[in-house]
Structures are given as C-alpha cells and as structure tokens.
Design a protein that fits this description.
Layout lengths: L3 H10 L3 E6 L3 E6 L8 E5 L3 E4 L18 E2 L7 E2 L2 H19 L3 H5 L3 H15 L3 H6 L10 H14 E5 L5 E6 L7 E2 L5 E6 L2 E6 L8 E4 L25 H18 L5 H16 L3 H18 L5 H16 L3 H18 L5 H26 L1
Parallel strand pairs: 9-12
Antiparallel strand pairs: 1-2, 2-12, 3-11, 4-8, 5-6, 7-8, 10-11
Protein name: MYND-type domain-containing protein
GO molecular function, one term: zinc ion binding
InterPro entries: H3K4_H4K5_MeTrfase (IPR050869), SET_dom (IPR001214), SET_dom_sf (IPR046341), TPR-like_helical_dom_sf (IPR011990), Znf_MYND (IPR002893)
Length: 375
C-alpha cells in the first residue's frame, strides 16, 4: 500500500503540481508546468468545515449560502438553505446531530466553531477511509479522543485551517483543506485564494514558471513573523460611537500626514478605518475621498492583479455611481472588473453582479454623452 506522501504526490501530479521540501518552510507546492494569470492552479472542497456563527443562522452548513435558511429540527444548531444541502450533509451531520441534541442548552452555548470543526474532523475520519482521509494525516496526525492529542490538534488548526470568505473577502467560516495547507505564505504572492461557497480556488496572480513555488497571501499572519518591509504598521482599536471616533481618527490622520510619507502603511491603516466609519455613517462623499486615497498605497503593496486592489476599485466605483460621478464610476468599475475576472473567474454570482453594474454604468455614461451632444 502506498504511503501518504506517495498518495499526495500522485494526487498533485494529476494537477501538474508537485510537493518538495523548502528550507526554513517545510513542504511547499511547486508548479510542474507554467500557469498564466487568472488560471486555476488548484481547487479543493473542504475535508471538514463549519460556519463562524453557531446557532445564528447566518450561513448554510453545507454551501455557506445565506438565503432561505432553515434550522435542523433535531439539534437546532445546523442550518441549511434547502433539502438538497441537508441530504448532502446528512451522512456526517446525523452523527453530529445526535451528539449535539443530547447536550443541555448551557452546553450548546459553549459549542464554538473550533470545537464543532474538531468534532466534524473526528467524525469524517471515522466515516471515510479513503485517499483524502489519508492525506489529512500529513497535516493532523492520527489521534484518539484523549486530552493530549485533542490539545495538540487544536494548536494545529491555527496554522493549517483556512478562513472561508465570501467574494468580498469577508469571513464566513473555517475549513480544513489538506492540499492547500501545503502552500506557503508570502507577502509578495504569485497566487491568491478565493472561495465560491466552500470550494477553494487558488488562481495565479502572475505568470508562474515551471518549478516555481506557489505561494498565497494569508489574511492574518498568525504564527508567522513576517520580514517584509511592507508589513510594518499597527492596528488601532475598534470603537462604538462612529461619529465620535471618526472625529478622533481624522485628528490622528492629520497628525500622521505631517509625520509620515503619503504611502505609509500606518497612514493607510488609519484611512482604511476612516473609510469603514464613514461608510457606516453613510457619509458617501467622505468615504469616497478616503477610498481614493487608499488605492495608490494598495497598488504599491500588492501585485497588479491582487483582489484587494480590485475590491477597492469596486468600492470606489459603487460610491462614485451613488454620487452620480458616472464617468469616474465607469473607470473604477472597469479597473475592478479587469482585476477581479482574473482572481475570481467570470462565472461566479459575484462577478455576474459586478459585470452587470459595469454594463449599467456604461449605458448611463453613453446616454449622458449622447444627451450632451444633442444639447
């Protein structure tokens, strides 16, 4: 019988990829052929996953959709968007369901997403003795239900589990993707991780040559000490009163403008916070000003086709359209589409919505231009 490492090599060979040791990083994923920008390098379904919010009904447990959700009538913890998703998950959930249903209400409140992910991992490995179950061994060693091994496995989640995000990179849940966990972090990545539902897609951001290591950019660098100079800076705390805190942050920004270079990461973080504050206050004009100020820094920090740049242009375009700056909106949404069609593909609902908005703005701009010519 082939070893887990041999099974992993066979699994990757069929996808034109290879795994090899990287000094100081452990295993790494390498291209066995060239990939062009926007091409899917690898995709994978999660071995185990769970939504971020338990018992709230924000997302379907199976596909992570957020519409037409109904609670499992037995455990009253799992949520599904329809009978198809419930049937698809039933083999795994029926075991989880019995265990959760037996808990008291107080115990159910203690059921965190991480605990639930652990339970699902154990159940999945007991149910499924196949190739993917064996590949999980490369990341999380075999364990029985004892405190020492459970504690060890919990610690491994922080480095090997992935945050599942929506198309605008907002966190929805957590999943374990055995093959994707081999990809190393880089602050200057050549690939980006994007999700459609629970399915993870790693797309090339730039041409990847044969034998080049694939690297993705982590949203949070937990467990890493990053040496890239682009990662210097600090995060400021959250606040409750947005109008008051907006005034405080504006004062901070004025001081930072005197102290720092316009492309400073510190100044960028402050302006990102101000953008969020004024969006929540629905002060669209001020929000647009700060959105525009962040883009030149994003273009210096990230590769040309990084989703963060595309999403910022998308935000900018939506604000400009709302404020009836149609020509500006057309330029911003065009830039957003050019970038996000590479990182997100063209078939997702998110991209269909963006391309639909772009066509509406383009039609409005044409109408205004023709109306101006007639005058």
């Amino acid at each position: 019988m082939a070893s887990w490492e041999e099974q992993l090599r066979d699994e990757l060979a069929g996808r034109d990829l290879a795994v090899a040791s990287v000094p100081g990083k452990g295993r790494g994923l390498f291209a066995a052929r060239s990939f062009f920008p926007g091409e899917v390098v690898i995709s994978q379904e999660p071995y185990a996953s769970t939504p971020n919010k338990i018992s709230v009904g924000s997302n379907c447990d199976n596909c992570f959709a957020s519409r037409n959700l109904r609670k499992c009538s037995v455990c009253r913890v799992a949520w599904y968007c329809g009978s198809a998703c419930q049937r698809e998950e039933w083999k795994l959930h029926q075991l989880e369901c019995r265990a959760i249903a037996a808990l008291t209400e107080d115990r159910k409140k203690m059921l965190t997403p991480t605990i639930r992910l652990m339970v699902r991992l154990v159940l999945r490995r007991k149910l499924q003795d196949d190739k993917m179950a064996n590949l999980v061994q490369l990341i999380l060693p075999s364990f029985e239900l004892d405190l020492k091994e459970i504690t060890h496995t919990f610690s491994k989640f922080a480095c090997n589990a992935h945050t599942i995000c929506d198309p605008e990179l907002r966190p929805l849940g957590t999943g374990l993707y055995p093959v994707l966990s081999i990809i190393n972090h880089s602050c200057v990545p050549n690939a980006v991780l994007i999700f459609e539902g629970q399915t993870a897609y790693v797309r090339a951001l730039q041409p990847i040559s044969k034998n080049e290591e694939d690297s993705e950019e982590d949203a949070l660098l937990e467990g890493y000490r990053c040496n890239d100079q682009k990662c210097d800076g600090f995060l400021l705390p959250n606040a409750v009163d947005n109008s008051e805190v907006g005034s405080m942050y504006k004062t901070i920004e004025e001081l930072e403008r005197k102290l720092y270079h316009p492309l400073s990461i510190t100044l960028l973080h402050t302006r990102e916070t101000l953008l969020k504050i004024y969006m929540e206050l629905q002060d669209w004009q001020t929000a647009l000003m700060y959105c525009r100020l962040t883009i030149p820094v994003y273009e210096r920090i990230y590769p040309p086709f990084h989703p963060m740049i595309g999403l910022q242009f998308y935000t900018c375009g939506k604000l400009e359209w709302l404020l009836e700056y149609t020509e500006d909106a057309l330029m911003s949404l065009t830039r957003a589409a050019d970038i996000l069609r590479i990182t997100h593909g063209t078939k997702s609902e998110f991209m269909k919505e963006l391309l639909g908005k772009l066509e509406e703005v383009r039609a409005e701009a044409s109408f205004r231009l023709s109306a101006g010519d007639e005058q």
